[in-house]
């Protein structure tokens, strides 16, 4: 069977994308080859997804006919680029898609000269098809490459095209954002426990509150401020809670978190 998708790095994000792409039938397991250094992880990926697994990134690259997805840490990017340098050819090349935080199109195009590359920033809700991925296209891509990337990432959620100057900000917001939301859910549940709720019920209330609020904002397309006003009765419970959040600098903390993450993304690309 021809390998269509090569995945270099089958960690958290690589697996999130892999699981959904296979589940949706975008790629058959036999059409996928993953490279991973650790034998335990290799066995896990082979057994869980029935995909081909290899330790040699060059084999994964040369065998892949459609897409090579780079999903390693940005810190190992140059080592991988050096490894692959010998097998690069402009004759038949897969589309290279990098999801590495901070690594720029110009760095990708220096590593893969004259090859079609796309810089993408997905997020972990991709695992359940509720991700959002920002794409920016390299100079050697064409409409077919763009369509292919859209097909891959629309299988795991929404897709937006952005100019590269926005990619660090996207990383700070939607790339890292699931961690901030998870922290908020955990804290809401802790608050519920502090107020006397059993842990299981507190977790359920916290998760569903965040999920339902997001769905309401999305489906009714209302401004978050308006929704806040709808919940806030005069002299009621919510305004007492909001006053406390404002005292603790809640909004500012989130703004600064997104800015710090965007800055770190910029640093990782230097
Ligand atoms: N996690 C997230 O929410 C998101 C991550 N990203 C980006 O995705 C990339 C991967 O992140 P994440 O999945 O969290 O990280 P992980 O560490 O979970 O995954 C990276 C994987 O690559 C493997 N690896 C290390 N060296 C090599 C190598 N030389 N060849 C092949 N595989 C190798 C690692 O193995 P080992 O552990 O043994 O070193 C690991 O399994 C990062 O660049 C990150 O910026 C983008 C969006 C969201
Ligand atoms: O924390 C990180 O660096 C990666 C990039 C976006 C989400 N996780």
Automatic annotation (TrEMBL):
Domain Pyrroline-5-carboxylate reductase catalytic N-terminal residues, every copy: 4-102
EC number: 1.5.1.2
Catalytic reaction list: L-proline + NAD(+) = (S)-1-pyrroline-5-carboxylate + NADH + 2 H(+); L-proline + NADP(+) = (S)-1-pyrroline-5-carboxylate + NADPH + 2 H(+)
Top EC group: oxidoreductase
Primary site of residence: cytoplasm
Gene Ontology molecular function: pyrroline-5-carboxylate reductase activity
Alphabetic keyword roster: Amino-acid biosynthesis, Cytoplasm, NADP, Oxidoreductase, Proline biosynthesis
Record domain Pyrroline-5-carboxylate reductase dimerisation: where: 164-268
Compartments reported by the entry: Cytoplasm
Pathway note: Amino-acid biosynthesis; L-proline biosynthesis; L-proline from L-glutamate 5-semialdehyde: step 1/1
Signal sequence residues: none
Keyword NADP part of the UniProt annotation: yes
Source organism, top-level taxon: Bacteria
InterPro entries reported in the protein's UniProt record: 6-PGluconate_DH-like_C_sf (IPR008927), NAD(P)-bd_dom_sf (IPR036291), P5C_Rdtase_cat_N (IPR028939), P5CR-like_CS (IPR053790), P5CR_dimer (IPR029036), Pyrroline-COOH_reductase (IPR000304)
Main function: Catalyzes the reduction of 1-pyrroline-5-carboxylate (PCA) to L-proline.
Family matches, as HAMAP family: P5C_reductase
Family designation: Belongs to the pyrroline-5-carboxylate reductase family.
PANTHER family noted in UniProt: PYRROLINE-5-CARBOXYLATE REDUCTASE (PTHR11645), PYRROLINE-5-CARBOXYLATE REDUCTASE 3 (PTHR11645:SF0)
Name of the featured protein: Pyrroline-5-carboxylate reductase
């Amino acid at each position: 069977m021809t390998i269509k998708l090569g995945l270099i790095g089958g960690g958290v994000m690589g697996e999130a994308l892999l699981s959904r792409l296979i589940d949706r039938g975008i790629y058959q397991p036999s059409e996928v080859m993953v490279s991973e250094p650790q034998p335990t992880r290799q066995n896990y990926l082979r057994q869980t997804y029935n995909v081909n697994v290899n330790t040699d990134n060059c084999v994964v690259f040369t065998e892949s006919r459609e897409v090579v997805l780079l999903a390693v840490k940005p810190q190992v990017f140059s080592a991988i680029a050096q490894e692959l340098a010998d097998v690069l050819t402009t004759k038949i090349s897969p589309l290279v898609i990098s999801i590495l935080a901070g690594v720029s199109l110009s760095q990708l195009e220096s590593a893969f000269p004259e090859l079609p590359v796309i810089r993408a920033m997905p997020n972990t809700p991709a695992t359940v098809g509720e991700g959002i991925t920002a794409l920016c296209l390299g100079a050697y891509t064409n409409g077919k490459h763009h369509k292919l990337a859209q097909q891959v990432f629309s299988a795991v959620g929404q897709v937006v095209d952005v100019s590269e100057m926005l990619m660090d900000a996207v990383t700070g917001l939607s790339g890292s954002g699931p961690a901030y939301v998870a922290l908020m859910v955990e804290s809401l549940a802790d608050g519920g426990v502090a107020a006397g709720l059993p842990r299981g019920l507190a977790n359920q209330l916290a998760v569903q509150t965040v999920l339902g609020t997001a769905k309401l904002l999305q489906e009714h397309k209302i401004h978050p401020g308006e929704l806040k006003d709808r919940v806030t009765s005069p002299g009621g419970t919510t305004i007492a809670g909001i006053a406390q959040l404002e005292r603790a600098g809640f909004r500012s903390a989130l703004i600064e978190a997104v800015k710090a993450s965007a800055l770190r993304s910029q640093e990782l690309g230097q």
